[in-house]
Description:
The protein is α+β, with helices and mostly antiparallel strands and 204 residues long. Helices cover 24% and strands 36% of the residues.
Amino acid sequence: xxxxxxxxxVSVNDYLAAEDFARTKSEYIDGWVRAMTxxxxxxxxxxxxxxxSLMKSLAGKNCQVWDSDTKLRIxxxxxxxxxxxxxxxVCESNLPTExxxxxxxxxxxxLSPSTRLYDLDEKLTAYTQIPTLQYYLILExxxxxxxxxxxxxxxxxxxxxxxxxxxxxxxxxxxxLSMRDIYERIEFTATCVQEPDLQYQEAS
Length: 204
């Protein structure tokens, strides 16, 4: 997803009420609302490929895959946030009547022009504060390159994984994700330089 900031301070309750009727999605960061815009076809294909691989691997298990229609709530003494991650895997789900999850084990973001800095900085810091989180996986769109933040005790270790033959191991979930599957039908470019995001440029 691409993002553009709207500088207006709102309460959590007002944000959630507005999201129920909004025609577009917005994220909530400690009182500030950030509007979301659309994703490229390439972004959507990488996300859907990853979701399909996860759903196959988790079939028959308690853990479930949720896509970017479901919010992730991060609520503690320091912060109140709601994000729309591209994918999250949750083994202890919230109530069916709620519009968000609290306890992801895995969060996946596919990098886009306007979200790249958020995903690699702001969201990385926020996600790794979640007590249940074991993995934060960041996927490039243009080449088979991934960054995996993997919990090791109270800290996270960072791994960079490259190559179409690479397999991403997620042992806490009993899952192995093939880069070949994630990047099926993706035409690679020479570099990972992101193409201009016109919607974001206009919104900002």
